[in-house]
Amino acid sequence: GRRRWVLGAFANTKISGFATDFLSSLTELTNISCLFAKGTISSVNLQSTNSPTFTPSPHVSGETNWSARDDALAYCYIPGVDDPIIGKIVNTIFENNTKLKRVDACFAGNTGFTGICNADGSDADGSKLFESARSNIQSIDGLFANCSIETGSGDEGASYKGLTSNVHINLFKGMTNLTSAQNVFAGCFSLTGSIPSDLFEGCDNLMSTRGMFHRCYNLGIGESSTSISIPNRLFDSCRDSIQNTSYMFAKCGFAGRIGVGTKPVVGSDGLLANASYENKGLLAECTNLLDTSAMFFGCRNLKGAIPEDIFYTRDNLNTYLYYEETFCSN
Q1: pTM score, two decimals?
Q2: Sign (positive/negative) of CA torsion 285, 289, 291, 295?
Q3: Cβ pair 145, 184 in contact under 8 A
Q4: pLDDT tens-digit series, residues 290-309
């Protein structure tokens, strides 16, 4: 029960499944980074609370035959139940690990599962995956990175295998100590659906979403030209803390628009400092924001104009600043 780290314990293996309660007795776990990861792992220090250096890749070095890993993590065995759940991660796997802080690249590089489910195999929204440790988790970098692979192409486009579900709305909600969510879904080519406006609800200390959806080619690709692909209220809970959103949506398939906020109503004294408004632009009033490099790079299907309020910020002189020429083009 006292073991606190299982960093990379089953990384770069070909295991096809696991019992859903295999971590249940390790109640002191704080770091499960790279637990099942497939990729290049280095700088592992089991006496450290940090994570190893990790570069996810869609295959194990030297392995050229994809069929050797087609079933990786494809089976979840529930104690007392004869038939395993196929192709899903059961959301009770970490229910006894209440002290988790780092889950970086935990599932990265695996293509055997398509999403998250309840213990009966029914689809789940992901809200319970880290429910017991929700307020403790600090970093989820690369959690599902590269959990997708192209299996073929044809007249109707490419076909994929791996994580194919929508972005779960409640997966990160209420992670009050979460500071880093970099590359969480990077390289998940077959991730579908749209970006929920309340994806980061309650994530009051989130600092970095760098590369979070980088190369999610099919994310939002079926949206209409008038729909909102990126909600302007996405960062409402973390406008005071967010610092880095670089490459966050680079090369995504969005076919809609960036949401537009409403300009503030100036106070009765005429000072913008006293203005009040809730429906802010995407990055408006993000006063600690440092880096938005290539945030929308390569989003060739994105429609509409750049919202004029995307960077609106009040300064100490009660004026509004609008930063031009900072939007990354194709």
Answers
A1: 0.85
A2: negative
A3: yes
A4: 999 999 999 999 999 999 88
